[in-house]
Amino acid sequence: MNRIKLIAFLLVIAPSVFAQTAPPSDLVTIQQTFKKLNVLGSVLYVAAHPDDENTRLLAYLAQEKHYRTGYLSLTRGDGGQNLIGNEQSEILGLIRTQELLAARRVDGAEQFFTRANDFGFSKGPEETLKIWDREKVLGDVVWVIRKFRPDVIICRFPTTGEGGHGHHTASAILAQEAFTLAADPTKYPEQLKYVQPWQAKRLLTNGFNFGSVNTTAETQFKIDVGVYNPIMGKGYGEIAADSRSNHKTQGFGSAKQRGSSFEYFRPILGDAPQTDLMDGINTTWGRVKDGDAIAATLAVIKRDFDADHPDRSVPALVALLGRVEKVNDNYWRTQKTKELSDLIAACAGLWFESYATGPSYALGDMIQVRSEIINRYGDRTKINSLTTGTDIQQLNAKVIPSNQLQILNSSLTANKITQPYWLETPHYIGTYNIPDQEMVGNPENPDAPMVEFEFVIEGRPVRFSRKIMYKYVDPAKGEIYQPIEIAPPVTANIVDKDYVFNSQQPQTVPVKLQSFTNSSGTISMKPIPGWKISPEKIDFTDKPKGTEWTALFTVAPADNKPKTTTLEAVVSVGGKDYSMGIQRIRYDHIPAITLFPPSQATLIDIDLKIAGRKIGYIAGAGDVVPEALAQVGYEVHQLTESDIMNTDLSVYDAIVTGVRAYNVDKRLVVEQPKLMAYVNNGGNLVVQYNNNNGIVVSQIGPYPFRPVNQRVTDENAKVTFLDAGNPVLNYPNKINQTDFDGWIQERGLYFVSNIDPHYKTILQMNDPGEAPNPGSLIVADYGKGRFVYTSLDFFRELPAGVPGAYRLFVNLLSKPK
């Protein structure tokens, strides 16, 4: 009967995982926590990116073996592509951070990061480690090992390059070095103010069989992780699929797998395991002084547990807490005290959370907090104190009436803007700037506003923390929790990211302002040599909280102006200057994200000629190329299937497909003949890059070619003109070598091969040590029209304001009459 109850509870666990701040208190969680309390072992998994982790192994280690399990992703996945939106770079990294946390809530592991920035695909670890600042990132890996104290460290990839991506190999190299350095007190001694040296028992590589690469062998140590957990009612292949499917920006929705499945391991350093991953490691309470007695008591409590009356275990659990709090090993005392305290609350039916009364606050505002408590353990649970910031309410063991919602009000000052800590200051291409050592490794800001509760249960103090959230009810989705926002008094968003000037004509630059408190002040633009900006400043007075308005500035080129420069808006309020915008990111599969990016835009002076005006755009996986084209004067129309199938496409001077359109838009199978007819009748079709896997049509262009996984990652790679007389290099703009200056991250990706002779190859380029590659830009005449396919990464270069990228892309859109 109890087993049926446990499985039934699973039906309500998954949907509410991030919809609350209190941990789950169902019977499944209680039973799993009982098991976890009896295990004192830890495993750290190390790789480079979100999605590199082996979710099945993590779930098995965390929920079957009950080890404290962590995943250290060296980057936040900032340099990848986005299949569900148009966010890129640091913003994409924020989304992928939350996707990783959502995955961890499913598989039961914890999440950590270093300061390394995913700067894009790298072909080797040498380049990776140079760009990342090897010593700093290595120090971060050492820090996480010393703080997490894993008994075993597992790398996803080997040091010998089979992982392909340079980041992958670099993650293994750093893990191998950190395995030894973490135990050496002479290395990174500044960390020892907070942590102690730590030597893990062994370092292993987790073998894999991906495509043509197989690093597994039957002679290796292996574990069957495809076992079934009867308490959870699932196998670890099912749990892993739910975890991995949170990586939605990468299109990693996964099918549930059931049945036996082996993971293979190769030893790198330390003792090799013979029969168990934890060979030679005491993972019982026997690893701490007087721990055997704790284990014996815990076994009795677990034996006597009554699923119909979990509360009957509370007195014994509280008594056990007193003994655990005296354990001499600080690390395991901290871990097991928290686990045991949460178990006590779950068995007692004690629930409590804290909410701000509003979603947004200005720096310096007072945040009113409402804490709610429900107690189902009668008069044996009392509230002793409530601490909110510096506000301490002494409640002197006040009785909490049974099963009656209690509300306690408190407040704290909004004393820090809720900017993600790794984005607080400018950073280099390869690493984020994190001056505070204690911030390193955290997936989110560890200093978010909290409320500390101290209850008295069975006469003993039991302490808990709850993050302060904002909660509201959506008519379609029900209760929604989101982090509170602490903003500057006024934010200023410059409307467009780039402003392109190809004459001396001035442009109007709108700035959207939003007040987060009642405010008065000024908005101005920082002076820029070579540019005229007027007016000098604009005053605003008595703007109530929540007010939004627009200020207009006129910007015009003057003499001796740089080709590109940064325009920055400055808001002055109360004698202080702020230069921060606001950006909110909302997806249903992760919590709401708010950040405060610099209030900046790029001014671009380009010698740019335009031919044609009307562009049709077919959306792909997500990019902001249409906005960039509108900035230089094009009239861009987002084409629907109805537009393509039922209207006269000849009105468009060019039609452009967004990045990966032929991967993600299944309707292109139906629309493709109409697009080819448009070209045949005199149109100009420009297709941006597609992944080599999952193309929805048998042939993208009028003649065959094949996208392949080849790219040029050196953004400064030399570009050779193979067909210098081709119109795409001459009309309406004469393209020269300087147009390839200042590119970011890479030249291009998923170049094409097996190119039919009807196509002209226009450019050639390569990374160091590789053969020249002509597959970045191909052009063919077809009927009266022109077909262009490009693997150059315009989706990155145009938003970054690269002048030459604008000039070349305009040429691709401009077919001579």
How would you describe this structure to a colleague?
This protein is an alpha+beta fold. Helix content is 23%, strand content 28%. The chain contains 17 helices and 45 strands. It has a seven-stranded mixed sheet with strand order 3-2-1-4-5-11-8, with helices on both faces. Strands 36-35-37-38-45-44-42 form a seven-stranded mixed sheet, sandwiched between helices. Strands 24, 26, 28, 30, 31 and 34 form a six-stranded mixed sheet that branches. The longest helix has 19 residues, at 89-107. It is globular. Mean pLDDT is 93; it is low at 1-18.
Summarize the structure.
The chain is an alpha+beta fold.
Keywords:
23% helix, globular, 817 residues, alpha+beta, 28% strand, 17 helices
What topology, given as strand order, has the largest sheet? 3-2-1-4-5-11-8
Shape annotation: globular
Main sheet characteristics: 7 strands, mixed
Low-confidence stretches are: 1-18
Helix coverage percent of residues?
A: 10-25%
Annotation, overall tally of beta strands: 45
DSSP helical segment count: 17
Class by alpha and beta content:
alpha+beta
Strand residue percentage? 25-35%
Q: Kindly, what is the distance between the CA atoms of the first and last residues, rounded to a whole number of angstroms?
A: 79 Å
Instruction: Give the overall pLDDT as a whole number.
Output: 93
> How large is the radius of gyration?
29 Å
